[in-house]
Design a protein that fits this description.
The protein contains 13 helices and 6 strands. It is mainly alpha-helical. The strands form 3 sheets. Strands 1-2 form a two-stranded antiparallel ribbon. Strands 3-4 form a two-stranded antiparallel ribbon. The longest helix has 37 residues. The radius of gyration is 33 Å and the shape is elongated.
Length: 361
Amino acid sequence: MRTDKQTTNRPKKRKKLAVLILILVVLILTSVACSYQVMTGALDRSAKKIISVDIPTGSTTKNIGAILKKNKIIASETVFTIYSKANNYSEKYLAGSYNLSPSMDMKTISEIIVSGKTNDIHFTVPEGYNEYKTARKLSNEGIVDEEKFVKLIESGRYKKDYAFLEGAQSGNHQLEGYLYPDTYKIPKNVTDDKIVRMMLDRFKEVFSDKYKARAKELGYTENEIITVASIIENEAGVPKDRKKIASVIYNRLKKNMPLQMDSTVQYLLELDGSHKENISYADTKKSSPYNTYTNNGLPPGPICSPGKDSIKAALYPSETTYLYFVASDKLDGSSTFSNSHEQFLKDKEAYAKALAKQSEK
């Protein structure tokens, strides 16, 4: 049988218990909040060093957290993941190279990676550059050491990783024509090997299965197509002439005529350390497999890195009977095409006269 006293004390005990539980919950939440604040704060507020951190394309928030922890920018990748999701950063992170510091809190770090304001370096390889011009340009821009870069591209180490190099020329110039001309974004202090692979990967992307099938349809290897494209790249003064120049090359090959392309002689001269805008008769007699005046057929490989338009011209040439072309007397960079040597000589003379007249002004 319950007494009145027992009935009265029970609500009081429940109230005290509720108060204790509430206090405990508050203490736990306060402790968690403090811990979370500490964990999302700077790892080392006194740190003065700046660390270049690379965030690869396709990185998840968890991947980024792991990279930051590995570089000792944050204490916990788990906390970074939770913080990123809680603050809607997860889907906004951008790949690139960022300057970060352990003195930054998680909010600052997250906002920097979301901003996309990287310390990446941009460089451009122009269409028509050969591998040595590319090495020189990157060296002049402070991106690579020219001598080391040349040794790397001449090493032959990439053949096993890129199927399209199986058919490339052997020797030091195996990568000639395949260091695709484009604008690239790279993290600061990226390795030379990574730069080479980026350019080879870009070539692989451009020279699609459709292009491979078309090369086979024409009866030429991929290396031969890129070789034709490289000649087109250096011979065409204006875009509209590319496909016509391609037709001249194929027409001469079919007739077993020497191509007699100045650009191939200019290339062999550059390999010997000299550069000429206008070659001499003596230059056309130099002994080299790249000399298309003294050898029939294509040279052993490309003479530069052709762009996509020249590659397309090599794959889809105009249907003509042209066998010759020379710079036009319009002096606008275009060429004049002809079927006979006699007409070629007339066109050549017209160009020379126009050039002489211009120089008199």
